[in-house]
Amino acid sequence: MPTETTKSSTISPAEKSLLDRYFRLSENRTSVKQEMLGGLTTFVTMAYIIVVNPQILSQAGMPAEGVVFATCVSAAVASLVMGLYANYPIALAPGMSLNAYFTYSVCISMHVPWRTALAVVFFSGVLFLLLTVTRVREQIVNGIPECLKHSTAAGIGMFIAFVGLRNAKLVVANPATFVGLGSFGDKEVQIACIGLVLMLILIVRKVRGAILIGIVGAALLGMVRGMAQWPSAIFSLPHPSSTWLQLDFRGASRLGLLEILFAFLFVDLFDNVGTLVGVCEQGGFVKEGKIPRVGRVLVADALGTIVGSLTGTSTVTSYIESAAGVAAGARTGLSNIAVATLFLLATFCSPLATAIPAYATAPALILVGVLMTQSISQIAWHDFSEAVPAFITMLATPLTFSIATGLSLGLISFTLVKIAAGKLREITPLIWILTILFVLRYIYLAAA
């Protein structure tokens, strides 16, 4: 047992030995103290989801207090599974791109009731689990072209940023130009801008929890200026009943919802895999180009999604903010125990989370969009057959206000351009199947 580990905690030697053996602390050259610090760092950097997720899903008609509970519980369960089963310091929570798709594309644009959408999320979680166990999930990821993986992430980033700009009233409807710049005379616009500047300063200064600090700062300023109500209390008992087991399975069984199921599956596949690769490369977990125990890793978000749908939230996925915890020293799943514990404690802070106004969380959406569009640099723009489908995917996603539409148009354009370029070998059987299905979809919609 390393001296560092012995000095890092007040628990008994027997308990330390058990932790060391189970999480392989010595093998990973870490300690209990180092793992706890890493877990705390990860939680602080991603705790904004406790505030932002209810803000987004409440626009679909979901009770905010119930979503706070679901957000925290699903994050805790998924993070525990990742830590105990896969032994990685990668935390999970409801995904930012997927909650936006749930609310704006499915519930608002397609007029799907949120209870029905939750049932679709449940089915997607079950499908995630089945595909993971049978290793089909890995094959699907490998079958999708790199340009579409990167452009999908970038398109979702632009979509989320646009939602943030709209919530901040920085972008408003304009009858002449469709959209226009909002008025800086609006107090909400002013506070959103102040919050955005504060977050930018903290991020470039590498302050941990920058996004959360910015949200709280903007909310407090709005309360001081009388634009929002102060929270009625700091702590309260959780209120899960408003979203707990509120799934409409009968509505979700309709054939027309298969497209939504595919979109949840597709987006989560690449969002999760991209995060895993990024965090694992930073932590030095990648061995010979592969992530050890990747099957166990993918089980975590599948189970988290199932639990999330049952409690009342959208798809759960890995968080890139886990990289902050890795940078702070986290190397094993023990850090996720700290993350899960803090999320469970946060279920008692519902009054604080629901008191945060939309203009205070808007800057967070904009900056998350910035982070997601970084994948643009990995697209081979010099190759026209790669650039065109990537560009169409990125452009169509925010302009049609639909991630599913962006994905489908990107896939169709990829197949057409590759055929025109004589690069048939680059079109995988999976792409052929998806292209035919999406073309038939648009033919059906045109005839309807």
Number of strands: 4
The rounded distance between the terminal residues' Cα atoms is 69 Å
Shape: globular
Number of domains: 2
Q: What can be said about the biggest beta sheet?
A: 2 strands, antiparallel
Radius of gyration: 22 Å
Derived structural class: mainly alpha
- Mean pLDDT, to the nearest integer, reads 80
The ordered string of helix (H) and strand (E) elements is HHHHHEHHHHEEHHHHHEHHHHHHH
Strand line-up across the major sheet: 1-4
Unreliable stretches (pLDDT < 50, length at least 5) are 1-11
Report the helical percentage: 55-70%
Structure, explained:
It is a single chain. By secondary structure, this protein is mainly alpha-helical. The protein has two domains: 31-370, no CATH class; 379-448, no CATH class. Helices cover 67% and strands 3% of the residues. It contains 21 helices and four strands. The protein has helices spanning 3-7, 13-23, 32-46, 49-58, 64-86, 96-109, 114-133, 136-143, 146-167, 187-204, 210-224, 249-252, 258-283, 294-311, 322-327, 334-346, 350-354, 358-372, 384-399, 403-420, 429-447; strands at residues 92-94, 171-174, 178-181, 316-318. It has a two-stranded antiparallel sheet with strand order 1-4. Strand 2 (171-174) and strand 3 (178-181) form a beta hairpin. Helix 5 (64-86) runs antiparallel to helix 14 and helix 11 (210-224) runs antiparallel to helix 18. The longest helix has 26 residues, at 258-283. The radius of gyration is 22 Å and the shape is globular. It starts with a helix and ends with a helix. 55% of the residues are buried. Mean pLDDT is 80; it is low at 1-11.
